[in-house]
Amino acid sequence: xxxxxxxxxxxxxxxxxxxxxxxxxxxxxxxxxxxxxxxxxxxxxxxxxxxxxxxxxxxxxxxxxxxxxxxxxxxxxxxxxxxxxxxxxxxxxxxxxxxxxxxxxxxxxxxxxxxxxxxxxxxxxxxxxxxxxxxxxxxxxxxxxxxxxxxxxxxxxxxxxxxxxxxxxxxxxxxxxxxxxxxxxxxxxxxxxxxxxxxxxxxxxxxxxxxxxxxxxxxxxxxxxxxxxxxxxxxxxxxxxxxxxxxxxxxxxxxxxxxxxxxxxxxxxxxxxxxxxxxxxxxxxxxxxxxxxxxxxxxxxxxxxxxxxxxxxxxxxxxxxxxxxxxxxxxxxxxxxxxxxxxxxxxxxxxxxxxxxxxxxxxxxxxxxxxxxxxxxxxxxxxxxxxxxxxxxxxxxxxxxxxxxxxxxxxxxxxxxxxxxxxxxxxxxxxxxxxxxxxxxxxxxxxxxxxxxxxxxxxxxxxxxxxxxxxxxxxxxxxxxxxxxxxxxxxxxxxxxxxxxxxxxxxxxxxxxxxxxxxxxxxxxxxxxxxxxxxxxxxxxxxxxxxxxxxxxxxxxxxxxxxxxxxxxxxxxxxxxxxxxxxxxxxxxxxxxxxxxxxxxxxxxxxxxxxxxxxxxxxxxxxxxxxxxxxxxxxxxxxxxxxxxxxxxxxxxxxxxxxxxxxxxxxxxxxxxxxxxxxxxxxxxxxxxxxxxxxxxxxxxxxxxxxxxxxxxxxxxxxxxxxxxxxxxxxxxxxxxxxxxxxxxxxxxxxxxxxxxxxxxxxxxxxxxxxxxxxxxxxxxxxxxxxxxxxxxxxxxxxxxxxxxxxxxxxxxxxxxxxxxxxxxxxxxxxxxxxxxxxxxxxxxxxxxxxxxxxxxxxxxxxxxxxxxx
Length: 870
Ligand code: PEP
Ligand code: MG
Prior knowledge:
By secondary structure, the chain is α/β, with parallel strands linked by helices. Among the domains are: 244-339, ATP-grasp fold, B domain (D-amino Acid Aminotransferase, Chain A, domain 1); 377-511, Glucose Oxidase, domain 1; 530-869, Phosphoenolpyruvate-binding domains (TIM Barrel, Alpha-Beta Barrel), CATH 3.20.20.60. The chain has an eight-stranded mixed beta sheet with strand order 12-22-21-14-15-16-17-13. An eight-stranded parallel barrel has the order 24-25-26-27-28-29-30-31, surrounded by six helices. A five-stranded antiparallel beta sheet has the order 1-2-5-3-4. The protein is elongated and about 100 Å long. The structure holds phosphoenolpyruvate and magnesium ion. Phosphoenolpyruvate binds at residues 557, 559, 618, 744, 765-768, 830-831.
């Protein structure tokens, strides 16, 4: 088996095997761009490494050694050579890009002899020793997992001793001394001397990259981005180009369009006399790419050409890393650049207008999950105008955030778990901070540019970020900072604007975002291509209106019990639950009826004749019975009973397993008067609206929850039909209605052919269906799912991403059994999965008629449905 490929042997279509970076390095080589040559070890080798118990087997080792020789021939350099030594970078590269999640090692191949050689050859001992100390530092950290901090402490000590502030002010001798100190540190921590043999160094580095596929931050990133663990990462071994050899050298990162706004034009950052890591890590704040033109006119001109070639070639915005060594340009990487949702929409539309992409392709280019950010709040314009910023950084990831200042990722997680909104303020962020960044409303950093870790990751997460606010005087240790003449402590409130980079003292109110412009254009295209309809889960007219604005074509689920969350309504609801005679219950139901009728009317009006599915009561009782003494007393008074009597009733309602208890249609089987009342409310409201809007095709869909047997449905349906027909007859109306059921218990799926004979429609309640198929409580699974991720039993939460293998099979079976029995049966899904892109794709594939999801996920579902159809 072939485990290793030279860059000249691959191409862009081989990303599964070579990873994104490897495939693109090969492609750039093929189209004649200046790429330092090397080879790629395949993703299959990574999978094999894990299969072999985290070892690189002899066959793969053999091929790596063989390819080192090939590389030596191509470059004319040799590992450890006294004349022309080969130095390489070792970088990870998975199929899908995972910026900053895995490890990189630069300057590999150095030892004291080689340092002497390159120092003499370049006549630049400072550079040579700087490379060596960097290499020792990276290798120790990445390969041997000796913390970076030990080395940073040594650097700080050295700077103190020499009385200098910046790394670049250290002399060759200082760096040489540092390298020796680093080696001693390594020996002390690892227990062995630092390896001198480049081949040994290389095997260690390759192993470390494979191992980094499984590091905690990569695992979190994969879960968030739907990247399977089984893919593995490739490893790229590339001949070094040096950006830190002197003032005619440098390194940069650039995008062919602005990754924040999508505006055309080169956008990026450049650092002279530096290595790639310096830009990405945000240790020094770099210059804008346009300033590079003055320093390196030739290399810049060439770079601009390369950008054009690459953008045309890939027909997408490119994100490139490059190095200038002694004035000469080298391309180290290109990929389709990560971008904000706003930029993604603009770029997709522009590419269509420029004739580079079709509308279908443009729709397929947008990650549906990304749209979320566009729907996030922005600052209230008036309040913003009235506010004076106390400082400014780079607007690194758009959105508005307001919250209490915290200084560590752990604090961000802890405070957020307590329900606080927080802004994570850091000198700079590192990949270990990812969970903290996720928990925060926004991120503010003192150092780093638009391509720093914080900026890249925040954009990926759609989280507001202001980066590189150098005016902040930071005191991380004592959890305080100074800005604009004021000292801020943990817990103080600030607001940050991720578009302008402005930082404000105190609270600035936020408002909801608008859909317009490019968003509207892409959505219109998406609607043209999709087959699946998209409805919404909405229980209030307000949510329904919002969902309509966002493109919902109906209500797929109105949870009627949710209409009783408000304080004045819940009282009536409790009176109904805690009744012990039919008369008492009917009395309470009579109080509920007008609420329901009014709500339903408002929902029909908001939907303007589009379908409205009303799900009959499904209250897990424990969510509704009163627990507070005051509430119990109030209920007792309302019902004219003693507190003890009420407590007895509550005691009697106690269930060991409420989610599998007396809920759903089981309530109606015991208390038919509930269904009677709800039917009256549904039909009376419909008749009212129908009389006012004869042109609307109003046809309420009554949905019976938690059915497991056709006889159950038959029983409830009879009550519904009798009541509804009576209402319609009395009103002399011609209104039509449907009665259908949720499929959310495995037995319902298994007997769908029987149930279909009694149902006008099916709607999958995949929350309960997942709960009951797995036997995992949907309320408690969060407590143990982490252990499942840690042990690689699960890669995702089956409650957010539909389990296509198991639960999905039940869905397919239901459709297959149900449709032949009732060809007019319409089928949808209204569990949480209805707004998850990969689940939507599955729903399309198995032939559902519609998905239904929360209002803010409607655009996501529309786009995902279009992508599934393209
Ligand atoms: C479901 O079970 O998937 C569903 C939509 O109903 P609920 O979440 O209200 O139980
Ligand atoms: Mg349910």
